[in-house]
Amino acid sequence: MKKYSKLLLTLVLAGGIVGCVTTTQVNIPEPTAQQVRGAAPLMEKISIADRATFESTTFEYMSDNLSLSYHKFPIGDFLLGHLVAAMPKNVSITSIQLQKFSGKCIADGYFVAQTVCEVSLAVMVEAEGSKNIIVARVNESPGPWVSSFGTNYAKMSTDGEGEKIMVQVGFVLRSLATEFANEYKGR
What we know:
Blueprint: H1 2-20, H2 40-43, H3 48-52, E1 58-64, E2 69-74, H4 76-86, E3 93-108, E4 114-127, E5 130-144, H5 161-185
Parallel strand pairs: 1-3
Antiparallel strand pairs: 1-2, 3-4, 4-5
């Protein structure tokens, strides 16, 4: 009987530990170009066909560093807003089309993990009578990793975690857009 009680105790403890490390669903708000300062008036000039090239663009953010699973969410309009807002003000864009995009943030470390994001894109820009394919890439650490375990462990709540993730993604996309604009100016 003693042998079974130890086994039962072990199973109960193991179940409790597994239950404590289960991630919860984080609601990540879908960002838009209107959230990017200075983008709204410029977005009106972008054609529907050009916007469509950004439409299916998604970003990946590591949800937990135990199972290595990711949140995947749309950012196409938000990305386009950052790119047009970063372009030099004297440039009149005729067409801007996304050719390729990759964006992923991971947790670097376990106990005090930092977010590390690697983002790259290739965009065809037609402006001032010429067409160029602009390639930009950034590798940034926008701050502490936002875990799907929640920061309020007492309540096991993830309230506000989605917004924190979007702040970090916005920071990385601003850096990418600045790099994109610098590459464009260098042409």
